[in-house]
Automatic annotation (TrEMBL):
Record bears the keyword Transferase: yes
Residue ranges, annotated region (Disordered): 120-153
Pfam families registered for this protein in UniProt: HATPase_c_2 (PF13581)
Naturally occurring in which organism (per UniProt): Streptomyces indiaensis
Protein name: Histidine kinase/HSP90-like ATPase domain-containing protein
Domain Histidine kinase/HSP90-like ATPase: 22-114
Keywords of the record: Kinase, Serine/threonine-protein kinase, Transferase
Length: 153
């Protein structure tokens, strides 16, 4: 399936707000997850590396967001919990809480961290919450570091 929107940029703190603005039509959860994933590229891969942000509408009322970068070795790690004094370490936990599912795909010299989210309009409610509290399709998170092919599916 072709992405509905593709953004190509160089990873830089100033670019994160532009990604959020561009993704405004998809809702705050998509904006927040994209911000976290682009920020992770900046922090763990480096500034000025090329980043591609893609958004698709999936069957079942989901939005799929993918953030690609050129370092297939720098894989995301979901920490059990950041301490109250920690200045970072909550981004993937936030993504994990918002997403129906998420994972990592490595292809060639790139990786894509992706997630699927419900949007308010697609979820069938005014609150942005899916009709069932279990969030259909959601499974329990895996323990420890995330593997190379898929973090959770």
């Amino acid at each position: 399936m072709r992405p509905e929107m593709t953004l190509e940029l160089l990873a830089a703190p100033a670019g994160v707000s532009g990604v959020r603005r561009a993704l405004r039509p998809y809702g705050t959860d998509v904006q927040l997850c994209a911000s976290e994933l682009v920020t992770n590229v900046i922090r763990h891969v480096g500034e000025t590396v090329p980043v591609t942000v893609r958004v698709w509408r999936e069957e079942g009322g989901r939005i799929r967001l993918g953030v690609s970068d050129p370092d297939p070795r720098a894989l995301p790690v979901l920490f059990a919990g950041a301490g109250t004094e920690a200045e970072s370490g909550r981004g993937l936990a936030l993504l994990d809480a918002l997403a129906v599912r998420w994972g990592v795909e490595r292809e060639g010299g790139r990786k894509t961290v992706w997630c699927e989210l419900f949007t308010g309009a697609d979820a069938g409610s005014d609150t942005g919450t899916p009709k069932t509290p279990e969030r259909p399709g959601r499974r329990k998170p895996s323990a420890g570091a995330l593997g190379p092919s898929s973090a959770r599916s």
